[in-house]
Specification:
mainly alpha; rod-shaped
Length: 41
């Protein structure tokens, strides 16, 4: 039971970190094509 809770907490933190990283990256960069190909058209 305790291991399941730990796994879910770690998974939630990882997903939240990735979402935060992509959201802040998307909002901070107004233009596309700077050092990464983000396929914005």
């Amino acid at each position: 039971m305790m291991q399941e809770i730990i796994v879910y907490v770690v998974l939630f933190i990882a997903v939240a970190f990735l979402l935060k990283k992509f959201v802040f990256k998307g909002k901070k960069k107004g233009n596309c094509g700077d050092d990464t190909n983000c396929k914005c058209g």
